[in-house]
């Protein structure tokens, strides 16, 4: 990519062909390095290209600002956007091929004081779903998870911010529930994984075919199990609860800070507490943290300060590992990510307690007494098993405190 950039920068004219080649090289490099997003950022004195790899922003380079209009226009043409409109936000998409795989690229533009910024999200629908045992759950959490999703009916919520792996978790759950004698239907925006044997329906908000509209239609399709990609509005929440109460197993993602917060998001949407208590089967909250790179991982002995932290959580510090840095992990010591989970399973006491609409702190206290662990504990547990490092686990606690 650097040679092509130098050629373009040194030229007096910006040719369409080199620019299109450059954009493709940027995308190919990001895909090869497992990036989830590419950012094209214009500033007064530079044009910055960055990619998000394993949750962290990585600089791809700083270039003359005069390159920005041509590169942005090329991406907009590929995404079938209006290249003349530069003041209003636009959304688009295109498909690219990389090593025989089809990659769906979702594109969003926004006008800044220095020009248009572009973010491209890379979605590989052909990649295999993650096995349950590889998600990061403890053995006890895995038992609860499988029990929740093996139910015949009820509502299960998966909470977390954008990019926290919620869709990956739900598609791993589909492996449990998608048996031949069940009719499984998903409603997704976008369809991130293609799963054989189930009906997958994409959302088209622009055509008045959003989650609520599709969900109402799916109810008439004789489903046993329904996966709703996201509960965004009151109507979708109400239909999901009603479907769970009428004998369907419904699971959906929702934006909330933790498992208890997922319940209160629905209560804030004016879902009656007694209906929610009857429908609610459980909630899962998750965050992603970086894995130790397997190519350069090496064991190390815990420091006195680290031993104190592990002891505080009643965890053993005998399997600690860290990456020394290599080409595979871009010398970071980390490669790929793993989720830290918080799982709340409903029981008779919690259901009765939910009807009284208690304060979230009080409900959280009783949930912990019923066996729910904190996400911070689970992250530190992953460090104690050498899956991540304690430094990385503790960033999760800092991030949650600041959110």
Task: Please provide a written account of the structure.
The relative contact order is 0.10. With 403 residues, the chain is of the alpha/beta class. The longest helix is centred in the first third of the chain and has 17 residues, at 16-32. The protein has helices spanning 2-10, 16-32, 68-78, 139-149, 166-177, 211-219, 234-245, 259-268, 273-279, 304-312, 348-355, 360-369, 375-384, 390-402; strands spanning 35-42, 47-53, 56-63, 90-98, 101-112, 115-123, 154-159, 184-188, 199-202, 225-228, 249-254, 280-292, 297-299, 321-323, 334-345. Strand 2 and strand 3 form a beta hairpin. 37% of the residues lie in helices and 27% in strands. The strands form three sheets. A seven-stranded mixed beta sheet has the order 9-8-10-11-7-12-15, with helices on both faces. The chain has a six-stranded antiparallel beta sheet with strand order 3-2-1-6-5-4, covered by helices on one side. Helix 2 packs across helix 3. The two termini are 37 Å apart. The protein contains 14 helices and 15 strands. The protein is globular.
List the helices and strands and how they pair.
Blueprint (H helix, E strand, L loop, with lengths): L1 H9 L5 H17 L2 E8 L4 E7 L2 E8 L4 H11 L11 E9 L2 E12 L2 E9 L15 H11 L4 E6 L6 H12 L6 E5 L10 E4 L8 H9 L5 E4 L5 H12 L3 E6 L4 H10 L4 H7 E13 L4 E3 L4 H9 L8 E3 L10 E12 L2 H8 L4 H10 L5 H10 L5 H13 L1
Parallel strand pairs: 7-11, 7-12, 8-9, 8-10, 10-11
Antiparallel strand pairs: 1-2, 1-6, 2-3, 4-5, 5-6, 12-15, 13-14
